[in-house]
């Protein structure tokens, strides 16, 4: 997984607990020593790896568990818990779709390349359609209404 994705997830946890100072307090309480606010900022910006103990401390403090859920999906090979917790699956499928399209563009007369590109884009469509439907429902948009 990309360091930038982990940094983004960590940054969202920092926001969820109330900012860098609150995150530092939560982390310090969990690990038993002081942590640098500058290092927290470096981790948020993708300039340093996310320490596992820090991610766990912020997950516990916020009640949100993106690292735990992501790791669980990696270990079990299972799908995301909901249409809205599928960002890693969506990223993987989108990457496969782009790769299949590039193969098709390189070999436009190859029927297998056409079929592969179509299949990969169908996977992307299915994931995004599910996420969009769930978001619409959360916004109170009924089927047939403008989005």
Automatic annotation (TrEMBL):
It comes from the Bacteria. This is Uncharacterized protein.
């Amino acid at each position: 997984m990309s360091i930038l994705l982990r940094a983004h997830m960590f940054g969202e946890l920092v926001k969820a607990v109330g900012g860098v100072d609150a995150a530092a307090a939560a982390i310090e309480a969990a690990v038993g020593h002081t942590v640098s606010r500058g290092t927290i900022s470096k981790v948020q910006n993708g300039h340093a790896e996310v320490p596992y103990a820090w991610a766990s401390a912020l997950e516990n403090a916020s009640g949100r568990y993106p690292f735990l859920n992501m790791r669980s999906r990696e270990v079990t090979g299972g799908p995301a818990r909901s249409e809205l917790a599928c960002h890693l699956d969506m990223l993987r499928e989108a990457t496969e779709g782009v790769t299949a399209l590039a193969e098709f563009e390189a070999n436009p007369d190859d029927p297998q390349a056409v079929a592969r590109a179509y299949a990969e884009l169908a996977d992307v469509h299915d994931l995004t359609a599910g996420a969009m439907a769930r978001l619409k429902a959360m916004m109170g948009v009924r089927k047939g209404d403008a989005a």
